Inverse folding.
């Protein structure tokens, strides 16, 4: 019974353990429905076969090709292959709980988005985003995060410019082959904002409209996490068989201050892309 019920969910999902297509707005209703049913499956505190069956049934609402569906299938496959011990059941419950957290997460909005910026959709799903032209103040990260933050904060304070979210971090390759944040930027609410004072070390940059592949995550934007998410974006581009090409350096978008608890912080990893003559 366990194998049969899991097969119902697995059968329509070849190459299960990777996201196969971009998130689209119509996916959100299925994610919400699956989250409700997965929470109910956890609340039932049933035995392992029943928990697998309930979770597999809930997972059918998740969109085909989504990262959430792949994560759930991976957890169910591992549980289905194990014995019916409490340890196996506990691992499954923890995995399903993590998936519910991802499906239900809503970022804490600490400031307004710049004009025309796309809003949050979902955590841990690759999506295509189009950003309009915008203006920002940036500075070098050579002095670390605090060394970059304070000049930018003084800049918007002196010019009476409202703080917006996100904070942009542009990454560059280093001599050791890794990539690290090179510049930090505060984004203006309007592309027509014209600061009267610009201190040494701060640059005002106009950014042309840009299309990116973006993936959101909960917690801290540590280098190792950013690298893993970048690898997912690069793998998606590679799997498009030439439909997309990378068109610029990596960047991250941070939406919360260090004062926000870690499990409530949200950031995005983004790669600028251009569509080629082919379509996916």
């Amino acid at each position: 019974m366990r194998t049969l019920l899991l097969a119902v969910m697995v059968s329509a999902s070849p190459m299960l353990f990777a996201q196969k297509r971009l998130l689209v707005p119509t996916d959100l209703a299925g994610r919400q429905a699956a989250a409700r049913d997965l929470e109910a499956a956890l609340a039932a505190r049933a035995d392992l076969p029943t928990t697998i069956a309930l979770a597999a049934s809930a997972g059918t609402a998740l969109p085909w090709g989504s990262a959430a569906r792949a994560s759930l299938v991976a957890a169910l496959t591992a549980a289905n292959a194990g014995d019916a011990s409490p340890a196996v059941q506990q691992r499954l419950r923890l995995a399903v709980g993590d998936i519910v957290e991802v499906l239900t997460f809503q970022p804490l909005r600490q400031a307004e988005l710049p004009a025309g910026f796309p809003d949050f959709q979902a955590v841990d799903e690759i999506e295509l985003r189009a950003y309009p032209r915008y203006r920002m103040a940036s500075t070098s990260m050579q002095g670390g995060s605090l060394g970059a933050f304070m000049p930018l904060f003084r800049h918007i304070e002196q010019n009476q410019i409202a703080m917006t979210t996100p904070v942009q971090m542009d990454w560059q390759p280093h001599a050791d082959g890794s990539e690290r944040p090179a510049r930090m930027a505060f984004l203006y609410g309007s592309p027509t904002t014209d600061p009267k004072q610009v201190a040494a070390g701060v640059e005002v940059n106009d950014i042309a409209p840009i299309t990116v592949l973006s993936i959101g995550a909960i917690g801290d934007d540590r280098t190792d996490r950013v690298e893993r998410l970048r690898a997912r974006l690069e793998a998606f581009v590679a799997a498009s068989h030439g439909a997309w090409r990378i068109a610029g350096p990596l960047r991250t978008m941070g939406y919360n201050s260090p004062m926000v608890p870690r499990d409530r912080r949200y950031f995005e990893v983004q790669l600028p892309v251009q569509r080629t003559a082919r379509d996916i």
The radius of gyration is 21 Å. Residues 1-5, 10-17 have pLDDT under 50 and may be disordered. Residues 2-104 form one domain. The chain is about 40% helix and 20% strand.
